[in-house]
Amino acid sequence: MKISVLGLGHMGAAIATHLIDQGQTVTVWNRTAGRASAFASRASVAADAAEALAGADLSILSVLDNAAAHSILEDASEAAAGTLIVNLSSDTPATALALSEWARDRGMRYLSGVMLTPSTIVGQPDSRMLISGATSNLDDAMPVLASIAPDVSVLGSRHELPASFDTALLGVFWTTLAAWAHGTALAKAHGIAGEVIAPHLAAMVNLAAQIGPEFAHDSDHRAYPADTSTIGSTVTTMQHVTAASKDAGVNSALAEAVTVLYERAALEHEHDSPSRVSEAMWRSNEETAGR
Description:
Layout: E1 2-6, H1 10-21, E2 25-29, H2 33-37, E3 44-45, H3 49-53, E4 58-61, H4 66-75, H5 77-80, E5 84-87, H6 93-105, E6 109-115, E7 128-133, H7 135-148, E8 151-154, H8 161-188, H9 194-221, H10 231-248, H11 253-266, H12 277-289
Parallel strand pairs: 1-2, 1-4, 2-3, 4-5, 5-6, 7-8
Antiparallel strand pairs: 6-7
Helix pairs in contact: 4-6, 8-9, 10-11, 11-12
C-alpha cells in the first residue's frame, strides 16, 4: 500500500517514521519544507500536497486544525478524490462534521479520527485512536490504522464523534493539570515544596477519578441525591480556596470560576449532591442559546 503523510509536526512525523519502519511505501509533505527534508533518505518527499495525495492508496492528514486540513484538500481536490483520506487533525466536533460533509459532497473517501496518546508511543500497544466513517472506508484503512494505534476504537459513521471524545477528554486533562498547578502554587506560597505536596495532589486526583462515575450517573438521570456531602458545603469550600489564593497572592481565576459554577448549581438546591454542578454546565448553554 502506498501511504502519504501530510503534516510533519510531532504526531505526523511519528506516524510517518513508524510506517517507514514497518516497511510501508511512504510519501511525506509538510508546508514548511525543512521538516519533510529530514525524511528524504527514507521516503519520497512531495513538492506539494497534490503530489503527496496523487497515487496514494491512503493519505493521513495530521495538521494544526480542520481549517488547515480543508485548505490542503481544497487546493488539491482533484488528487484528493483518488485516495482514502484519514484526517487525524484535532479540532471541534462542529468543524469535523462540516469538513466531512464538504469532503463527501466532492466525492472524497474520508475518515475522521483523533490520536489519544503522545507521539512518543505511536505504534506501541498502548497507542490509542478513535475513528469514524463509512464501513467500507474503515475496512480498507484498518490494517494501517491498527499498526499506528493498536488500541483503535471505531465509533461508527458519525464524523463528529472522535472530536467530541477528544475535546471532552482534553478538557478534563488540561483543567486537571491547571488545578494541579494552582494547588502547587498555593502550597508553595506557604513554604510547602511542590515535590512535597505532589503525592497528596495525586491522591486527590485519584479520589476524583473514583467519584467521577457517580457524577456521570447523576448527570444522565438528572437526579442528585446527597449521600455523602452537599453542594452547599462544596460552595463554602471553594469560597475558602478562592480567599486563600487571594491572601497568598496566588492567581485565583480558576478557583473563582469553579466557585461560580457550584454557586450557580446550588441555587435553591444547596442540600443536593455536588454532582448537581452538571446542571450549571447545561444551564450555561441553555442561557446562551436563549439570548
